[in-house]
Target: Thiamine-phosphate synthase
Amino acid sequence: MTIDLRLYLVTDPGTERLDDVVAAAVSGGATCVQVRDKHATTRALTDRARALRATLPAHVAVIVDDDVEAARAVDGVHVGTGDVPPSVARATLGPDAVIGWSINHLDQLGDDTQLAACDYVAVSPVWATVTKPDATEPFGLAGVRAVADLLARRLPLVAIGGIDLDRTADVVRAGADGVAVVSAICGAADPRSAAEHLRRVVDAALAET
Ligand code: TZP
Ligand code: MG
Model:
């Protein structure tokens, strides 16, 4: 499947009634969902991802963070520092899986083997965020521009880290094809409305580019 990155929901396992939040976000306009839980077993991640896959529309990709084995149950995996590289994920999951790769340094874009193995790149983090306190040095908007220029449309680009409604348009104008968020949706009082607003801003900014 091809993944639509316009509004990428990364789930926070601490969120109450997470399945309801995901369903609300998707009905509001989230285009793909990542199951992220650094403390869950492969079994638990597999069950959670499979349950989401069963309830969400087919065009909304369900991706597992880090765990290539759990990703077998759904559409694909997202890997980054400390995980297997995209080439290994590709060899394990095969040609139809969606594979995303977080890059933390511009020089990673020189690795053609890894770029050839993935379906999209995430520029991570754009800004510092309490959601991921161990993240590397933030790219900022200038960094997003630099990544987009170096990538030169070889792969779609999603931006993550500290993105909220006010920052979304600038991130897309800097060259991202979409925004990935945790707290802007999982921490919202009304996740459906939060997703609707974010999607509207992404779509409007994409229409300008
Ligand atoms: N990877 C880089 S930053 C981040 C992840 C998973 C967390 C983003 O969370 P938030 O709440 O959208 O800033
Ligand atoms: Mg990871």
